[in-house]
Design a protein that fits this description.
The protein is of the alpha+beta class. It has one domain. The chain contains six helices and seven strands, in the order E-E-E-H-E-H-H-H-H-E-E-E-H.
Amino acid sequence: MGFPTRTPSLIRGGLVQLDSQSGRVKNVITLQYNPDTLSRSLQIKGVGGDGAEFSEAMRLKGPPVETIKLEAEIDATDKLETGDATAQQLGLHAQLAQFETLVYPTSGRLRSNNSEASSGSLEIITSNKDLLLFVWSRTRILPVRITEFSVTEEGFDAALNPLRAKLSIGMRVLTIDDLAFDSRGGSIFMSYLEQKEQLASRVVSTGLGALGVNAIP
């Protein structure tokens, strides 16, 4: 008689493309291996500068500019061992293209731009109706824009298809300063902020004694 395993299922991080109007999920890109580290930076948007009055110095004019950077690895070995036809024919080309097309306007949009320019249109617009989300557990689902992307390919098959690759992905979190407050993206950002506030409220505040003081002078 077998016993059920107690090993929890592994939750992976990844990226989700949504239609910004309908909210329909168009594509899910799962990281093959979760990176060991994830770097985040918050640039504060304060109102006051040097010499500002107290009322100004204490004000925030909006959410901070949050940037995220991660290093991820992908490997075709597992798919090759299971006889995956795409991996056998193309190595990692298809998986890499999934990431890379996130930072390109579509070929259809570029052709449309060219037609408009040829007909005398003065303004070229490379609009994108998709909203990109970075998902890193249930407590971190946030709208982002990819700001940098680099690939190091390692190991090639006889047809020069890459078999291993390291990805470096930089992202900027989109806030209500970037998105309409009542938009789908604005709603997702607000949920992300509210989740932070709920998490912070679960930490029990320590007394001043922990800091070695009895009172604030």
